[in-house]
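Follow-up to my earlier ticket, as requested here are the two runs.
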Amino acid sequence: MGNTHIDYHKEMDIDRLCFERASDRFLQTGKKEDAFDVYFCYLEMFIGDYEKTSRMIELLSEFEENGSRLLLKHRDHYSHSVYVFLLGIAVFESVDMFREAYASFYNLKDEHEQAHHFLKYWGLTALFHDIGYPFELPFEQVCSYFEVSKKERETVPYIAYHDMEIITTIGEELREKVKSACGIYAENTNQLFAELLSQKLGGTYGKTTEDFIKILKSKPENPNENGYYMDHAYFSALILFKKLFEEVRCPLGKQP
């Protein structure tokens, strides 16, 4: 049958067209099935191994579908993430000031390189910012069962997560890669996130790295110290880090 290999540029064009059609279809329907297609196309384009990440996406989709039945008040985090992703693309495409500021910050000269860079890293941010929601759902279900307001939550049992070291510990090989990329040697994700938060926000809020470590550690273990709220954002950051850099083994290096 001859050579059926598709060269890289044609393959990228096919991926781009599939992504555009999936996005258009989702914007017409807002359905989770069409949201799933957007996730699929993105992962094929930028992660390259959908099989390793499909379980995470399918799990979130199923939790979303079932969660709406288990909670009286429930916001769809799955389709919501795709809307956020596409909204960001629209802003990047239509707002010159934003696009120029982004290119300047990352020192990107070529407009195609800018678009590719933004699509990749904004996609990671937007599409996966709620993947930790399944950790929050059981906590909210217990509170909902007792039909209490947030002010009354201290009067009923609540869920907390312990032995978090099982998933927060960073393997030795990855520690060295993180050190090379960020200049931070961290034994676990709390240390890494706390150091990054301290660098960016410590001066503004008067917090040290140790302060941030204590706050992050309390998120899963002591929701009572956090307004009786289980912060799925914490789990989202943790799971995404572990998924990308330990399981899928995406390259981790200094960014421009």
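Run two:
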Amino acid sequence: MSYKYIVGLSFLFAFGASYVQAASSSLPKTKEEVLNAGLPVVEITTVNGELPTCEHISGKAWGISVTSITNATKVPGRLTISTKKDGVIYDSGDYEQDMSGMTFKIRGNTSALVDKKPYKIKLQKKGDLLCRGDKKYKNKNWLLIHDYKYRAILGFKVNELMGMQWTPAHEYVNVMINGKYQGLYLLLESVERDVDCRINVSKSGYLFEYDAYWWKEDLKENGYYVKIPTYLSGKMYYTFKYPDTDDMTDDQKEYFIEMITAVEASVKDGTYQDYIDISSFASWVLAHDILGTADGTGSNIFLTKYDNTKESKVMMANLWDFDSILQKTKEWSTSHKRFYFPHLFSKNPNNAFIKAYRNRWDDVSPIIFDELNSYLDAFAKSKEADALNTSVGWDDELWKWESKTATVQDLMTLYKSKFDNRKAWLADAISTFPSSQTKGDVNGDTYVDKQDIMVLTDIIKKKRLIYQLSRVDVNGDKKVNVADIVELIKLIRKK
């Protein structure tokens, strides 16, 4: 990533360097000027003008030294969201603990080491910062991140098209802090358990991360990590999004250690089909291959186990890290070299995963690149794109990036060309993989079981045909409806 790193890093961390205002007459000086760009404006006003700070810390992952942050301070204040058309559309109110207002802090790892900081926002009262008009979207936790060259929205689109468990809702906004313009951000939902609108796991389930930054002192002191055998890949540990470690019982920890140790052993010895949902794993790594990422398994590998029963398998949750998309041209994404995937792609002793990966490619390849091109075209022609071109110019000037960001239109044209090349390379590279077309195997994991019923139900409910018609049309009538679910149940019962 071509970011300009902080000069005098330690000094800047100590004095809250995330907040600057360049001396330039072309930058907006009033909220009205920022609103005129056309994007929503998130305005944060802190108590006593205080600003969040953090310190940097170094540790090791994959045997190399990596840097992150620690001791991030939470700053209280008020948050409003406004549009030029409707005025104020959200107001947290003044800060009153557990009642109104919000706190925000610097978040991230390497992304937090540049001048422009990403933030985590915690509302004191649940709200929907994307203002969608439905109470089910209300939550306390939200993020503001820097989406360099609009890569994150491309990643989230592929995540959605691949049918992953959840895709975070998001919107571009301009941000002002204590009356001063602070740049263009992507406002989005954070990764967490929320059965109504985020990741759905039961109260006895787990939402966890295969984490390169487990060594951070604030994580270790609060028991966020679990030590497990390290024979798979790298000096990595598991940290928790759910359950909250403050509330985790010894029984829950013991269950997780026993469960994840068995999962890792199964991945190594080829018995993984009894422990992991291989369709979700295949979809996740194929999504990274479509995106051509260079560091998709660097961190931010989120997994779920719906509950603590044997029937519940470990699943990949959603993609997250998109800083390096389209850096790989004629080679696999780096995901093939890390995490469980070197073992899963091994043909010995079990090639079920390779078949599932090929099946997912057969499902999505006729559709997904056309969908991506349509999305890129629509985005380039949108009013939002014009607003972004204005806002990113301010952002470039304010934060003095080493290279200026091209227009939305030019970037989308470039991405279309890169995706066309990526499709051609993947088609050739995957052509030698085996596939399985067993009747009733809707999700392509080489099994015919209740997981196929769940996937088929989701396809019918959401009216999405990312899967091949031949795979989801179980009864062969060239339609996809409840009749296929009935036929699938019959097949499973016969089996």
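The only thing I checked on run two: The chain has two domains: 26-189, 206-368+432-494. Let me know what else you need.
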